[in-house]
Predict the 3D structure of the following.
Amino acid sequence: LHLVESGGGLVQFGGSLRLSCTASGWAFDYHAIGWFRQAPGKEREGISCIGRSNVPIYIGDSVKGRFTISRDNARNTVYLQMNSLDTEDTAVYYCAAKDGCFGWTDRSSYSYWGQGTQVTVAS
């Protein structure tokens, strides 16, 4: 499974972005997809996870109420809608695949990773 993130860029404080994670290869809909982010000098942080058929959904406390996750299995794509962006959201955002969302914040439990997309929020 090959994952490619897109949709990152520069956005003003309070703005919105939608990231996409598009997969190629076999059995995309057999995998849960997680989103992580890594800011300079910080550990990679779990943001969200979505199960194979849009359930279950987990959202990390740091983004709860601002970020939502969804997937379109027909398009082999998972989306991360990010609203009310803050400078603290500046990071490289990664998507990753595993067989279920259990233990979704554990980076080592994911089998496949994308290359990441940069999100920069300007004050």
Observations:
- The mean pLDDT is 96.
